Amino acid sequence: MRTLEGQGVTKYFGGLAAVSNVDFHVDRGEIVGLIGPNGAGKTTLFNLTSGALPLSSGEITFKGQKIRGLKPHRVCKMGVSRTFQETKVFGNMPVLQNVLVGAFFGSPNRISAADAAREASQALEFVGLSAMAGNSIQDLTLVSQKRVEVARALATRPELLLLDELMAGLNPAEVSEAMELVAKIRDTGITIFIVEHVMKAIMGICERIMVLHHGEKIAEGTPQEIASNKTVIEIYLGEETHAGS
């Protein structure tokens, strides 16, 4: 079953097409990777999907419902949540309060403070940060702040989670832990669409990978197919990566 589908998705900034006539889909229960050089249009595609940016043309549907023209809060309440390329946390609020925002923001109906607190606490426990609930978020490391963002997204109770460079800036051990977290999220029934530059992660957890370059989709396939695609190797992966170093 198609959870997310885009047809002819295009976004212009002035005369520049940041995303150009891209068709894509994410099926229920999949982990789909989105890769490409800097400036390829990956985050723009996420912004279009989440409602942060309006489409210039084309259509995006979530579970068969058109989401073009909907504001981000409406898209979120439908069941689409996200994290950001640059961690966006509320620096003047404690960890639990950051996650509470997600619980209130994502509920399609009115939610009590007690229920929101329960959702937030469960999300923090899921990502392994329940002991830090009362901490100032400014005191947390980068990896922990990224996990708070994931917890906030999970507190919206999404069916589809967009992860934008969750593993950027992490050391190898932290990357491995983040990969385990992504798999754990999928195992709860949440579909995942992930932008990432850490090839170990993309190749290790994704069933399918899509490649963008200059806003256009240039390849799509299994990790093995992408790793051996000559165009992708030349433009993005490089011969050294292809050789397994």
Q: Can you give a write-up of this model?
A:
The chain is of the alpha/beta class and 245 residues long. It folds into 2 domains: 1-79 and 162-245, P-loop containing nucleotide triphosphate hydrolases (Rossmann fold); 86-157, no CATH class. 39% of the residues lie in helices and 25% in strands. The chain is built from 9 helices and 10 strands. It has helices at 42-50, 72-78, 95-106, 113-126, 142-154, 172-187, 199-205, 223-227, 230-242; strands spanning 2-13, 16-27, 31-35, 57-62, 65-66, 80-82, 160-164, 191-195, 208-213, 216-221. The strands form 2 sheets. Strands 6-7-8-3-9-10 form a 6-stranded mixed sheet, sandwiched between helices. It has a 4-stranded antiparallel sheet with strand order 2-1-4-5, with helices on one face. A hairpin with a 2-residue loop joins strand 1 (2-13) and strand 2. The chain starts with a strand and ends with a helix. Mean pLDDT is 91; it is low at 239-245.
Helix and strand composition category? alpha/beta
* Nearest-integer average pLDDT: 91
Major pleated sheet: 6 strands, mixed
Query: Could you say what the CATH topology of the largest domain is called?
Result: Rossmann fold
- Cα-atom radius of gyration: 18 Å
CATH class wording of the largest domain: Alpha Beta
